[in-house]
Amino acid sequence: MIEEKKDSKKCGGKNKIMIAYGFIQLGSSFVSALALAVIAFSFCSLKKESKAFNSCVTETFENGSTKAQAVRYCNGGN
C-alpha cells in the first residue's frame, strides 16, 4: 500500500490576522456610521437656525425696513 502523506500546516498566524482585519473593518464602519449621525444632527440644528433667521428677516421687513436692511440687522449688523 501506498502511504499518503498529510501535510497539515497550521495557519494560526493567518487566522489571527484575518480576525484582526475583520475587527478593524467593523470598527471603521462603526466610526463612519457615527460620523454620519453627527452630520445629520448638525443639519437639524442648522435647519432650526435657518427658520429663526428667516422669521427675523420677515418680521424686520414687515416693520418697514428694506430687505437688505432686514438681512443686515438679523446678521448682527446695526
Main sheet makeup = none
End-to-end separation in angstroms reads 102 Å
Radius of gyration (CA) equals 31 Å
Elements, N to C (H/E)? HH
How helix-rich are the residues, as a percent range?
A: over 70%
Total DSSP E strands? 0
**How many alpha or pi helices?**
2
| Beta-strand proportion | under 5%
Q: Tell me the structural class.
A: mainly alpha
Low-pLDDT stretches are none
What would the average pLDDT be, to the nearest integer? Answer: 86
Shape: rod-shaped
Structure description:
This protein has 78 residues and is mainly α. It has a domain of 39 residues. The chain is built from two helices and no strands. Helix 1 crosses helix 2. The longest helix is centred in the middle third of the chain and has 51 residues.
